[in-house]
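JOB MANIFEST
job_type = single_chain_structure
chain_count = 1
residues = 467
[input]
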Amino acid sequence: MSTRTLIRGGLVITAADELHADVLIEDGRIAALAAHGSDIAAGWTAGRTIDATDRYVIPGGVDAHTHMELPFGGTAASDTFETGTRAAAWGGTTTIVDFAVQSVGRSLREGLDTWYAKADGVCAVDYAFHMILSDVDERSLREMDRLVQEGVTSFKLFMAYPGVFYSDDGQILRAMQRAADNGGLIMMHAENGIAIDVLVEQALARGETDPRYHGEVRKALLEAEATHRAIQLARVAGSPLYVVHVSAEEAVAELAAARDKGLPVFGETCPQYLFLSTDNLAEPDFEGAKYVCSTPLRPREHQAALWRGLRTDDLQVVSTDHCPFCFKGQKELGRGDFSKIPNGLPGVENRMDLLHQAVVDGHITRRRWIDIACAAPARMFGLYPKKGTIAPGADADVVVYDPAATQTLSAATHHMNVDYSAYEGRTVTGRVETVLSRGEIVIEGDTYVGRAGHGAFVPRSTCQYLN
């Protein structure tokens, strides 16, 4: 009895359904749902009952793109796995998929083990890993097979960042061919990094050093060109493709055209591209550095295409690409040279609330909110129905959400380990009230009641959109 929790009186929302139901949780899993007020629900007893009257009861969010403790540009992301997963919980996200990094000249195994060690015993919520391939050769291609068997079933490649993460078309093709054989999913950072480096050099030579030039040199056409090229390489290889952090209307058009042909091509976007723009990059007194990320923020007119892509399912997932760097001492490394500003924004705590605001604003429906934030990322990366839904047998990752509460987003009140908010002063409607991770309460009202080490590594199956 003591391991049973009952959530009564709420509106249960999944990607498929909305129903007024009570939810019975036992031994860390969803045991049953029954209509509120029904004889079945009335007969349930539990050691703990949560009143969800006038609240939504939703699956815990799945953020399939985070970078905790990522080394980048001579520094490292400011959130650890401990602080970052705690902030995720505060924002109603109960599973993250982070990126382990292969160093050039080193094995995938070594990179993955390094990330296992970073996360082990400190996470507040559950976690999984993708693998960044920085060095595609015979050894790393063979290792991909072993990682898929281990539950690390997706591999990220970069068409950007020459000299750091960059892979050429031949390396990309070989990795895609391997993924076509072993069932892995190739994730692509699609920007033409070789061309961008030329434009960076030319801009700096003209004395164009402010943060706004970061957005001007990383042109939307170079995102679209790389997206097109990645799609064609995937077609040649017979491989599925997932394009990360899509920001430009022209790139969405490339994905839509591929999907209209029935190709297994998928795309994600991020809250920063839906809610922020080049206006932020142009903020004076170097404030724009706070908004430097890649792909970059685009002019506001691109947002309509992203929302449309989410409604038509040409974009399936909203992840954060959470990669925070403090303004003081980290973003400031790029004063006088925008190319030295560490690329990344904080956002793991804000995603669920911003997407609920999109429901309030009429961009998406409530069920689509849950789809793009919970169910679709879980399916995409082999976690469904353990994660991403409320159904018998699923992990009891559950959020009781107050859709009427308002809050103002601010660095003064957020829990991410970073000294600014990308959404400072923005008021949103909707707020997380209670968060359960595998049946254990992690957030209760204004209190974190979880613990470091509760979060467990979750091995993943292959992409469930391809089965």
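[summary]
The first strand starts at residue 4 and ends at 13.
The chain has a mean pLDDT of 97.
exit_status = 0
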